[in-house]
Amino acid sequence: MSLVTDKRPGLVAASLGEAPKVVSLAIPIVVGLAAATLIGVVDTIMIAPLGTEALAAAALTTSALVVLYSALYGLVSVIGITMAQARGAQEPKAVSSTVRNGALLGLIAGAAGAGLMVALFPLLPYLGQPERVLAVLFPYWITMAFVVIPFAVLYVFKGLFDAVDRPWTGAAFALLGVMVNIPFNWVLIHGAFGWPGLGLLGAGLASLLAQGVALLAVWLYWRRARSMAAFRQKAALSLRTMAQQFREGWPVAVAYTGEGGAYALAGLMLGWFGAAALAANQVVGSIAGVLYMLPLGMAAAVGIRIGQAVGAGETARVRAIGLGAFGTVVAWMAAITVILLLLRTDISRALSNDPEVIAIASTMFLTMAFMQIVDGIQSTSVGALRGLVDNRVPTVISLIAYWLVALPSAYLFGFWLDLGPSGVWIGYGLGLLTAAVALLLRFFKRTRVLTD
């Protein structure tokens, strides 16, 4: 059923009024998401002195973790929307029930993810991974598998902070994890006071401890802070509630996993062009990963704002919130596009000293630059629809766009039309465009923004 909203002549003014509110929520969410990615950056920097095999082992582990993180983030992000709706309806006890049951669901889902990652390890030799890397991988792989457990629970609480208009609190705890990870890494990897350290195993233990400390701090804040008193009321743990949360969350988890998997396969295609293309993709991908936090943060923010409006019964505000978010993210990503176009060669040179890699990466940055606005629209559309608890149809749209359009188009442009590495991303961009248009139309349909 579509939301029934009136077509007010002041829609533009209302959208401009909603935009700053969405931005004020999106910025701390972006900071928190970026902080989560910084833990991987810290690990990479501190593991590098251990040698090529150790760094390769970390890269292999990260590839698996990205898929798990995507799935778990998609699952628990819907719990945050439910809390936002309860907050908008002025029902703090419902928020309390949602966070308690959501934290338990996050714990169960995280444990399942950890078990799956452990179970996958024996399959790695059959995937053609180097024996020297596998020889040092096991302890790091296992310890990092357990990091997904506190990650899943942490993001349930982060959803709480966002839903009750305290997004900087969630960002602060995410940054705490990064800050704690640095000294833990230093001591556990390289040792101190004559102790030699644990090497690669120490890196895994440091990340696990850092996430554990951050989760403990979050839990203590929730249990003790006066501002959280209304949201820690006693509430029964309910299998029915958790089942409902899972039913709403799994389509989003599938969508994020499908998007991440398609992106990874596009990256594998680039390996068919040789080492230089693969290295160039690493250069471009490292920048793309950071930039993706902007639309992902906006998606979370618009979902929370729309969820609050729906919970408060203010459905007439939904379209204005969505359009304000779309306008903002287009402006953000347009600025990023200009920066990439102007600095693409400089960025490539800063991250590589190989002339061939620099040349390929500079060309690939052209394609990536023009994908930014489209990526912003599709991500924000997903978030807006999530705020309406419209998850299943957008998941189908995303899977079709990425797996039936993006990947075949990437192969077509990259290989059949002989456009090379940039052609792969041109084809992938067509899938992104398909998703953006279809999801935007879906949002218009649900809110009756389209004019007859």
Question: What is the topology?
Answer:
Layout: H1 11-47, H2 52-88, H3 92-120, H4 131-163, H5 167-190, H6 200-224, H7 239-271, H8 275-291, H9 293-311, H10 318-351, H11 355-387, H12 392-416, H13 420-447
Helix pairs in contact: 1-2, 1-5, 1-9, 1-10, 2-3, 2-4, 2-7, 2-9, 3-4, 3-7, 4-5, 4-6, 5-6, 7-8, 7-12, 7-13, 8-11, 9-10, 9-11, 10-11, 11-13, 12-13
Name some characteristics of this structure.
452 residues, mainly alpha, 13 helices, 0% strand, globular
- Low-confidence spans: 1-7
% residues in beta strands: under 5%
Assign the structural class, choosing from mainly alpha, mainly beta, alpha/beta, alpha+beta, or little secondary structure. Answer: mainly alpha
Helix content: over 70%
Rounded mean pLDDT is 86
SS summary, helix count: 13
| Beta strands, count | 0
Measured between the Cα atoms of the first and last residue, the distance is: 18 Å
- The sequence of SSEs as H and E is HHHHHHHHHHHHH
Sheet with most strands: none
Radius of gyration over C-alpha positions, nearest whole angstrom: 22 Å
Structure notes:
There is one protein chain. The protein is mostly helical. Helix content is 83%, strand content 0%. The chain has helices at 11-47, 52-88, 92-120, 131-163, 167-190, 200-224, 239-271, 275-291, 293-311, 318-351, 355-387, 392-416, 420-447. The longest helix has 37 residues, at 11-47. The radius of gyration is 22 Å and the shape is globular. The two termini are 18 Å apart.
